[in-house]
Amino acid sequence: MEMSQAMMNLVKQHVECDDQLNRVEAALHKADMASAGRNFRLFDEQLEHHFHLEEERLFPAFEKATGMTNGPTMVMRGEHAEIRQLRDQAMAQIDSKEIAAALATIDTLNVLIQQHNVKEENILYPMCGGSIPNLASLLGMGGCGGACSCAGTGESTNAKAVT
Amino acid sequence: MANKILSYELAPSPATIFGCLLPAPWIGAVAGLLLAFGPAEGVPNRFAPLLLAVTHVLALGMLAPIMIGALFQLFPVVAGQAVPGAKKISPFVALASFGVSLSLTFGFLYGNRIAFILAMLMAILIYGAVVCALALAAWRMVLPTHHDASLLTLRWIALPLLMVLGLGVALAGGFAGAWEINLTAVLTRHVAWAGLGWVAALVSGIASTVVPMFWQSPKPSARWHQSVPVVLWLLLMLMTLFDSQDGIPYWTILLALVVMCLAAFAFKNVMKAKRRFDPAWTLWVACVLSWFSSAMLYLMLAVPHDYLPAFFIDASPWWIGVLGLVGGAVFPVNAMLGKIIPFLVFLHLRRQIPTPQRIPTMQEVILPQHLRLQARLVVVAFLGLLMVPVAPSIILPLAGCIFAASQMLIGALILRALFRYRHELKRVIFAKN
């Protein structure tokens, strides 16, 4: 079975978050705190949009389809909490203009996100693809239902995806 | 089992991984010192006893425990499958690997037959156990339907290790006089399986995941994921079966061409990495260039080469060895240690300390400026080693010492990371009490 369009869109959202976090790092390296703060807030929006999509649509559907409520989705929710905690730490450091500390936190945040993404892309998404019928429409991605990454990453997109 | 899929619970304990990784750089330092102060007769000829000894100290004493430790960690994290018996095997991996390399050193330097027999027996015991454990984990892991180079590497990595072990045992037995073998044929295959089947396959397969992850290079293409590292193993198998020692080694030549192509693709991706500011990124650039250069040098020697100067022909085997072993293996291993160790410390602290409490970031565990210094040292040592054929008696001790210093530094940084881990745990335990 090939990776479905819905799963590819989820992977694309991972890449978009990575790119956005990279812009934050680039701004921090130039000590451009205004750009770092602005880009970090965009990263935060993209990240939350993606997490909400998973936590409110994908994971419940997987748990319903497989009956595994204490399985991989629980682990992934736990990792989301850890990522959010580091994100908040980085946000606070950017706001207080601690460049070196923010870069160190983002370095770890990046690795934490990457290893999380590897697990999702190699294990969880294929499991979801095999067990959840109509995955694309469930995620609002059938014919670009507003939640896919091509629809942009602004607040309006998030609102569509979450509600 | 189901509720543990993707869980930290599957990841081996810090002791399991640190037990494999901690001593390894210090053995690398021993290899450097041996190179600097060992009996240098015949150097830089690839069959000089000192070079045979140093190669095995580096490949077995240093690289093998790190690579085996990394596999014990990667199986659960990347493939969701723990390696059975990893906890029982890991305490012996570094010790036995050092034992095997030490025995081989005695064997090569003093022509000691018993040392070869001892090395053979220890290698069968420890690497036999590792092969069985990795094969069992590979058998149990579930491959997703899309191709992934890292997962394919994990699936089949027991095979090249078995080939290296089998051919190595055949050679050791031959040196000990236990049986007669076609030395050149077995040696060629042993070197090919060790260098390409084990080291290059593992580095390329695992790097397909970890380089995009840690350095944010573009993810390799679907074609890369379909072909790496299986194409290397297929060609090695064909080379093992069909290449003769007398005629032109067609399969080996094809293998070298494939290595050059893979290195060229890898170079393109590594150069596009977004985190080029990371201290270890340079090591990856040097690594892929080393693989490309060593394969190209091999090709130049494999076809008629009368046009080449005699010095170049004489020095090429040394250069191929340095490029493959230091550039192609030590560089990526050093680069990964600098990332994986702080991440493991972070990961295990996070597992044991509740989320609201702050834990040190990776850059607080190992400082980036220390990693940058280490990367510079090992690159200088590498350049020095490449220049050895120009003036062996002067450059070899110098390059050996710098190499030893670079490995001592990464060893000290890993120790510091471990102390930081213990310190943070103690802080939390005492805070609770």
Q: What's the CATH architecture name of chain A?
A: Up-down Bundle
Rg of chain B over CA atoms, rounded to whole Å, is 21 Å
Shape of chain B: globular
| Domain module count of chain A | 1
Query: What sequence of helices (H) and strands (E) makes up the elements of chain A?
Result: HHHHHH
Unreliable segments of chain A (pLDDT under 50, ≥5 consecutive)?
144-163
CATH class of chain A: Mainly Alpha
CATH architecture of chain B: Up-down Bundle
- Overall helicity of chain B: over 70%
| Mean pLDDT over all positions of chain A | 84
Q: Kindly state the number of beta strands of chain A.
A: 0
Question: What's the main sheet of chain B like?
Answer: none
What does the secondary structure layout of this molecule look like, with pairings?
The complex is a heterodimer of chains A (163) and B (433).
Chain A: H1 5-29, H2 33-66, H3 72-95, H4 99-131, H5 135-138, H6 155-162
Helix pairs in contact in A: 1-2, 1-4, 2-3, 2-4, 2-6, 3-4
Chain B: H1 14-21, H2 24-37, H3 49-79, H4 86-110, H5 113-140, H6 149-156, H7 158-175, H8 183-215, H9 222-227, H10 230-242, H11 250-271, H12 281-302, H13 310-352, H14 362-365, H15 368-386, H16 392-432
Overview of the structural elements:
The complex is a heterodimer of chains A (163) and B (433). Chain A is an all-alpha fold and 163 residues long. Chain A has one domain: nmb1532 protein domain like (Four Helix Bundle (Hemerythrin (Met), subunit A), Up-down Bundle), CATH 1.20.120.520. Helices cover 79% and strands 0% of the residues of chain A. Chain A has six helices and no strands. Chain A is elongated. The model of chain A is unreliable at 144-163 (pLDDT under 50). With 433 residues, chain B is mainly α. Chain B has one domain: Cytochrome C Oxidase, Chain A, CATH 1.20.210. Helices cover 77% and strands 0% of the residues of chain B. Chain B has helices at 14-21, 24-37, 49-79, 86-110, 113-140, 149-156, 158-175, 183-215, 222-227, 230-242, 250-271, 281-302, 310-352, 362-365, 368-386, 392-432. In chain B, α2 packs antiparallel against α3 (49-79), α11 runs antiparallel to α12 and α12 (281-302) packs antiparallel against α13. The longest helix of chain B is centred in the last third of the chain and has 43 residues, at 310-352. The mean pLDDT of chain B is 92. Chains A and B meet through α1, α3 and α4 of A and α3, α8, α13 and α14 of B.
